[in-house]
Specification:
The structure holds 2 protein chains of 2 kinds. Chain A is an alpha/beta fold. Chain A folds into 2 domains: 27-160 and 321-325 and 337-403, D-Maltodextrin-Binding Protein, domain 2, CATH 3.40.190; 163-314, D-Maltodextrin-Binding Protein, domain 2 (3-Layer(aba) Sandwich), CATH 3.40.190. Chain A has 15 helices and 15 strands. In chain A, the strands form 3 sheets. In chain A, strands 1, 2, 3, 4, 6, 7, 8, 9 and 12 form a 9-stranded mixed beta sheet that branches. In chain A, strands 5-10-11 form a 3-stranded mixed beta sheet. In chain A, a hairpin with a 2-residue loop joins strand 14 and strand 15. In chain A, helix 1 runs antiparallel to helix 2, helix 7 crosses helix 9 and helix 14 (353-367) packs antiparallel against helix 15 (384-396). Chain A starts with 8 loop residues before the first helix and ends in a 5-residue tail after the last strand. By secondary structure, chain B is an all-alpha fold. Chain B has 2 domains: 6-47; 69-297, MetI-like fold, CATH 1.10.3720.10. Chain B contains 13 helices and no strands. Chain B has helices at 4-10, 21-59, 65-69, 83-114, 117-132, 135-150, 156-181, 184-192, 197-208, 210-225, 229-234, 252-261, 265-297. In chain B, helix 5 (117-132) crosses helix 7 and helix 10 packs antiparallel against helix 13. Chain B is globular, with a radius of gyration of 27 Å. The chains are: A alpha/beta, B mainly alpha. The interface between A and B is large, with 45 and 35 residues.
């Protein structure tokens, strides 16, 4: 949705068709109309104004709410929902979302256009209302939430992923090295400089580590992956927390930069004796060495879906009501410590009822039926507790002042 | 310098035109430089053919019916096409031309026919500055004004406006140059018949410069068609068909970029295929326009 003026999609596409035909004057007029500055969000009057327009989007509030989760399912198109949605943001779940939205198009004929411009771009797009929803791997800060143009923004978790330590040591291609959080922090701080450093050797008894310099590789762009990784290092290393901290744009003490997950994976692949961090799927696709990380329970855990799901389950009990939560370094013997949610960002009070209906139905489908696609693409499905919390959030979204989710 | 009257005595008895060592050296040097320039010319031309050849070789495997009729598939899945991007690029270019051509044409005509003195200099200078503006700056500007304020979301029209801004200075420059080539006697003849000036411009000057003007328009469309940076910031891209100018629309350069940065070999082939289609679309457009205008001129 663009401005806070309520407007149905049908009217809007008519304007567009007009402007396409008489591209000059008619279009400029339409644009002029669009130029209205944003008004206060979703006043009751705005809702009233929207009523006569052809958007039977929201179910009447009196309709019996579906009691059991299992009973609610998105099975096909819905009368009155918007036929197009635009989303932008994180690159990490882009593979997953493109699968979701392709399947969703087959199911409901709704075209969800998702462009992976990065978590920072996604936060900017939803804040400016230049897209219908955003996507991010690092939760928005309170300051960012305050700057949002359209009021309260909800973080709806869609999947879980792992950030892995990936390395390229000639001769040790098939060896799974073990790392503790402290060693990783020391490597990226530059205090451990050789592969055969006693601290690394202590965790990898029996492995013949080379006496070579370590080349550390990190993201050069603003990245949710960087946030997750540095969030973990801050959780396990006091030195990291004070010297560097957790951020999407990290002030790296040293090392080499690569752009995007694929950039870091490529650098690691080409640079002998290097180490970097990427989302699990990129290490797997590029056949790179993946390290085991020591978790809070003292176990060295391989990054896999079970370990990530474990992290989410361990964190589920202490999740904040707004679901902005870091799940790095959680309890549990099988828990993989560098795990994260990836969220879709949506406004709680949407002005366009048709879009609100379409988006809530998409989110419902995404957090339920679509979760079956996660595993194949290297993402873990959401734990049941989180799905339940997400349901409440989705149901709380309003379109033009009325509950937007039609319950089917 | 010696006194010219004494100079003749110091000239060697041998004819100054006889090939001496310096003459041979000069001649060799001249040929050597000519050779270097020829090599430069060949390199310049061959770069074009190497790029074209490489794009064809790498892109050809991606070309099939699906590529032109289907929309992109999810990440990592083999198949699909770039049809929404092709229609999107054509739509955005058409709208950009609708906005940019009248402005550029009018400005060029003003400079060649109406402008006087320092006003012309200022306009010409500004137009040249605009031509030199990096396209990403145009993109950021349109994003800040149209995407964030006027339209309120990523939209095809914002992309068309940014491409129009890129097209205008190219059109202005070429139109002005070709109009100035029209012989002044033609204008005088028209004016002598008592035609008003605007009529003279429309009926005499513009038709005689038609071929040059159209070359300028084609050049500007070709330049705009390949722009990626401003489109990434304005139209955003769309993997579905969209004809709604107020919503995101796909474009070939954006799709090319998305395919190229992904870690899948099939997508890399599709990126080359997209490059091939982009070059072909621009090539076909400009050839068609040129053939059409050549016929009319005869």
């Amino acid at each position: 949705m663009t401005t806070d003026r309520p407007e149905t999609t049908s009217r809007r596409s008519m304007v567009a068709r007009l402007s396409a035909t008489f591209a000059g004057a008619a279009f400029l007029a339409a644009c002029g109309a669009e130029a209205e500055p944003a008004k206060a969000p979703a006043a009751p009057t705005a809702a009233a104004k929207a009523e006569p327009t052809k958007a039977p989007a929201a179910a009447p509030p009196t309709a019996p709410a579906p009691a059991a989760t299992g009973a609610v399912a998105i099975t096909g198109p819905f009368e009155g929902e918007a036929k197009t949605l635009t989303g932008a943001g994180a690159t990490f779940p882009a593979a997953l979302y493109s699968k979701y939205f392709n399947e969703y198009n087959k199911l409901t004929k709704v075209e969800v256009n998702y462009q992976s411009i990065g978590s920072g771009g996604g936060i900017k797009a939803i804040s400016d209302q230049t897209a219908d929803f955003g996507a991010t791997d690092s939760p928005m800060t309170d300051a960012q939430l305050k700057e949002a143009k359209g009021g309260e923004i909800l973080h709806i978790p869609m999947a879980l992923g792992a950030v892995v330590a990936t390395y390229n040591i000639p001769g040790l291609e098939t060896t799974k090295l073990k790392f503790t959080g402290e060693t990783l922090a020391a490597i990226f701080l530059g205090t451990i400089t050789k592969w055969n450093d006693p601290k690394i050797a202590a965790d990898n008894a029996g492995v013949k580590l080379p006496a070579e310099d370590i080349v550390s590789i990190h993201r050069s762009d603003g990245s949710g992956t960087s946030f997750v990784f540095t969030d973990y290092l801050s959780a396990v290393s006091a030195e990291w927390k004070t010297k560097v901290g957790a951020s999407t744009t990290v002030n790296w003490p040293g090392g080499v930069g690569g752009k995007g997950n694929e950039g870091v994976a490529g650098e690691v692949k080409q640079t002998p004796f290097s180490i970097g961090y990427v989302e699990l799927i990129y290490a797997v696709q590029n056949k790179l060495g993946v390290g085991l990380i020591k978790n809070k329970a003292g176990q060295f855990v391989e990054p896999n879906l079970a370990g990530v799901t474990g992290a989410a389950a361990a964190a589920a009990g202490k999740v904040a009501p707004d679901l902005r939560v870091s799940i790095v370094d959680q309890d549990g013997a099988a828990t993989y410590p560098i795990s994260s949610f990836t969220w879709i960002l949506a406004y709680k009070q949407m002005t366009d009822a048709a879009k609100a209906t379409a988006l809530t139905r998409l989110l419902w489908w995404g957090t339920h039926e679509a979760q079956k696609f996660n595993g194949d693409l290297g993402y873990a499905p959401l734990p049941a507790e989180i799905v339940t919390k997400g349901e409440a959030m989705i149901k709380s979204i309003t379109g033009a002042g009325k509950p937007a989710f039609p319950g089917k | 310098m010696a006194d010219p009257s004494t100079l003749s005595f110091k000239v060697s008895p041998v004819s100054p035109l006889a090939p001496d060592r310096r003459y041979v050296a000069r001649k060799f040097y001249g040929r050597f430089m000519a050779g270097l320039i020829t090599v430069a010319a060949l390199v310049g031309v061959s770069v074009l053919w190497i790029i074209l050849g490489y794009v064809i070789v790498r892109g050809a495997p991606a070309i099939n019916l699906d590529f032109f009729t289907q929309r992109p598939l999810p990440y990592g899945e083999v198949g699909g096409g770039i049809a929404p991007s092709i229609t999107g690029t054509l739509l955005i270019l058409a709208v950009a031309a609708l906005i940019g051509v009248p402005v550029g044409l009018g400005c060029g005509i003003y400079l060649a026919e109406y402008g006087r003195g320092s006003v012309v200099e200022v306009i010409r200078f500004c137009s040249d500055l605009l031509a030199g503006l990096p396209s990403i700056v145009v993109g950021v500007f349109v994003w800040a004004i149209l995407v964030r304020q006027v339209v309120g979301n990523f939209s095809g029209i914002a992309g068309a406006v940014s491409l129009a801004i890129i097209m205008v200075p190219i059109i202005v420059r070429t139109v002005e140059a070709v109009l100035l080539l029209v012989p002044y006697t033609l204008r005088e003849a028209a004016l002598a018949l008592g035609v008003p000036k605007w009529r003279m411009v429309i009926s005499v000057v513009l038709p005689s410069a038609r071929a040059g003007i159209i070359t300028g328009l084609v050049l500007s469309v070709a330049r705009a068609g390949g722009e990626t940076a401003p489109l990434l910031l304005t139209t955003l891209g769309n993997q579905f068909f969209s004809w709604n100018l107020l919503e995101p629309i796909g474009a070939i350069p954006i799709q090319l970029y998305n395919y190229a940065v992904a870690p899948y070999p099939d997508w890399h082939t599709k990126a080359w295929g997209s490059a091939l289609v982009l070059i072909s679309v621009i090539g076909i457009l400009s050839t068609a326009v040129r053939v059409a205008t050549r016929r009319q001129n005869r």
